[in-house]
Structures are given as structure tokens and as C-alpha cells.
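Just scan this pair:

***
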Amino acid sequence: MSRPMMSTCGFCGGMHRVGERCPERIYRKAKTVQVQLRNSGRWQRTRREIKERDMHLCQVCMTGRHNTLRLYNSAELEVHHIIPLSVDVDLAYEPDNLVTLCRYHHKMAHDDKIGADELKTIVSIPPALLALNFGRSPTPHSHLNMRGRKKF
């Protein structure tokens, strides 16, 4: 009867079968294509360009929709893929597939509370005309900061 080949583990010091992973060691997960794209220099440049295109403002806030507190919101901005990378990675750097959103509206977009069609419509309107096209004026809360306190 043959015995399995064993070797000393460099992590825990115990004996394991050759080719077997140490159960005490935490292994890193392989990076997904989405993570690799988001860590690339090209993505960092594209993200910066999209924020500049959108005037460093949340584009949904500028429409006054979806519980907007401030019409001109430049806080906690993130760039959102309208068609997710998991659906079509070829659209990762496509400007028409990217929109600047605040963290609140970004979460709503990921929860499908703001649809892709609505976001595509918003992207198609130049940011400088966005608030005018939707006929919105500053919200009654525009005198408050993000925490609901008076600005002064």
C-alpha cells in the first residue's frame, strides 16, 4: 500500500499532501475582468474625462428627480456604467455608456430604481442644458448642505 506524498507547509508548519492547500491560509481571489479594468490607468483617465464632461455634477440631481436634495450636487461623485461590465465589457470606456452620479443615485441605478433608458436619455443631453431641458429650478432645499444644516 503506497502512502501519499506529504510536504511541510511553509505557512502553518504542518504536514499536507503535495498539491493540497493549507486550510489555515487565506488565499486571494483571482481578480475579475471588472476589477482589472477599474484598476487600469485607462479607466482612471476615462473616469476623469466623464466627470469633466458632466461638469463634476450628478446628472440625475440636475434633473431634480428621484428625491434630489440639491440640484447642483458635486458631493461623493462616482462614474456609473449604464450597461454593466458584466453584461458587455466592450462598453467599458464608451462615453455614451458612462454617467456621473452621486453615491445615492449610483446605488439607486444599481438597484434598478433608475432605469438604463432614463440614464441614456440624460447622457444624450449636454450637461449645461440638462437642468433647463427638464424645466427644473433649484429645489427648496438648496439652502441646506448635505447634512440638512444651513449653509453659511
